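Lab manual, section 2.4: Encoding a predicted structure.

Procedure: take the sequence of the chain (162 residues), apply the prediction step described in section 2.3, and record the output as structure tokens. A sample record is shown.
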Amino acid sequence: MKKLALLFGMVLMAAPAHADLITKHSSSVQLTVDAAASQATRLGSTYSVSGNNVSATLGGLTAPASATDAATMNSGTYTQTTAGSAFSFTETFNGGDAIPTGTTVSSGVVGSLPAFGSVTTTSGGVAGSLGGSIDSAGTMSLTAGGAGTSATGQFVSEITIR
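Recorded output:
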């Protein structure tokens, strides 16, 4: 009996279990509408001439009247040096880009884009009916928008026992 009492006493001396239960819930919705963009590179004017058996008063570029204009071509005078002989002649002019005036942005939209030599343009997204929500039970509702949009939803539930 003493052994039983001793065993019972030892059981009573054992510390109670202390366990922590931690729960965390987080949710997020990300809605994105792409912006319109235009990347333009202004190209300059170029002029070149080459040939053989040709006499010339060379042409060239005429400086523009203002910094927003493009240079223009000044034609040269060319004649065949020896009549009846073979000759070659090449004259090339590429007109550069003038800078347009009055380009304005209104409500995030450029009314008219510059017509430069190198232009890359992307259209903006259309929100349309784009939307999203997550309730406390983690039920997700994502509604597609128009072109150039995305909707991402996430619900995370974490349980920790210590």
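Check your result against the sample. The longest strand covers residues 21-33.
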